[in-house]
């Protein structure tokens, strides 16, 4: 195994762990290191790794850089064989790493795993997972991430970025504070179309594999290929028969007493009729608001539904 390490030095404000890891590995044979100062450098970095025979790309960053790497590889792969990915949770948000990341505590252990080609010899260290592909964002760029959400999701992310990250909180702590703030706002009043609330309704039409599943007011919609989301939540049910797992909560939303059962549990759950969860290969969502992909707030095209598709399958190293 030949390793390539990409460090985004700006993940988590300043990625001190990633930079320290790169310093530890700078003289290690069989390890190529790239510091990603600008995303425009990513195609050249990956092309260089391909020429050097890298077969495993380690990513020291948060969710946004991971989805940038996946998008570049999925759309313009310079490798003869798609490289394996190993995600180091060194960013502000690390939801993808929480499910598919390299579970190794401490920089010394991480450096040893990156530099030792014999570590990943067992199949139980690998996970195969398809991406969530957004085919028609307003800016025309095709993206491959692991989580997409709209409705309350984009408002929650905006609140977290503007208010919570400014306090220095990040990761699960920031998400937890955002969730508590959203629940508090929901308790203190009724949702209304002109109010700055996380649980305000949006008109959505949701089609999955050619079938219309909803055409009504919805509070939230999201789709993912992850098994678990931030804080260990698993807000989908009904059987994972297809790669994309999706959930929508209609307006009026269920009582907050249902929150724990919506967020945590197995495939068989008894939930109110406003709660819809399904699996699909392709989804189209018509909604007049922004959406979020792995922490990045984006806009859909005004003239057509947002197209969400199953992307290519990557292999992730998840050794502890």
Describe this structure in words.
Helix content is about 25%, strand content about 30%. The protein has helices spanning about 15-25, 40-50, 65-75, 95-100, 105-115, 150-165, 170-190, 260-265, and strands at about 5, 30-35, 55-60, 85-90, 125-135, 145, 145-150, 200-210, 210-225, 245-250, 275-280, 280-285, 290-295, 295-300, 305-315. α1 crosses α5 and α6 (about 150-165) crosses α7. Strands 5, 6, 7, 8, 9, 10, 11, 12, 13, 14 and 15 form an 11-stranded antiparallel sheet that branches. It is of the alpha+beta class. Mean pLDDT is about 85; it is low at about 170-190. The radius of gyration is 20 Å and the shape is elongated. The protein is built from 8 helices and 15 strands. The protein has 2 domains: about 5-130, 3-Layer(aba) Sandwich (Rossmann fold), CATH 3.40.50; about 145-295, Tumour Suppressor Smad4 (Sandwich), CATH 2.60.200. α3 (about 65-75) links the parallel β3 and β4.
Overall number of domains: 2
Enumerate the spans where pLDDT stays under 50 for 5 or more consecutive residues.
172-189
Quote the average pLDDT: 86
Number of strands: 15
Radius of gyration: 20 Å
Termini separation comes to: 18 Å
What is the CATH topology descriptor of the largest domain? Tumour Suppressor Smad4
- CATH architecture term of the largest domain: Sandwich
Sequence of secondary-structure elements:
EHEHEHEHHEEEHHEEEHEEEEE
Largest sheet: 11 strands, antiparallel
The fraction of residues in strands falls at 25-35%
Morphology call: elongated
Structural class designation: alpha+beta
What proportion of the residues is helical, as a percent range?
25-40%
CATH class of the largest domain: Mainly Beta
Helix count, DSSP H or I runs of 4 or more residues: 8
